[in-house]
Amino acid sequence: MATFPNPELHALYQRDLGTIWEAARVANVKPGTIRVWESRGKIERVELKGGEPLYHLPTVKLASQVPAGRPARAA
pTM of the predicted model, to two decimals? Predict the structure, then answer.
C-alpha cells in the first residue's frame, strides 16, 4: 500500500489527474523521481482502462512536501 494513497476511484475528478510530466511539474521534481516514488511505494498511479498511467496530482503534491532522506536516529 502506498504511503500516500489515492482517493477511491469514484471520488476522483478528471481535472486532478495528470501524466508523469504533469506530476513532476506539480512536485517540482524530474519524472524519474516520480517513477522512484512509485517503485518504493510512496505514491501510486491511477489505472484507467485503455489509457496511459495517470497520477492524482494533489496526492503527488502532498508527497512532495515530505523531506527526502531517512528519519534521524534516536540518541
Answer: 0.82
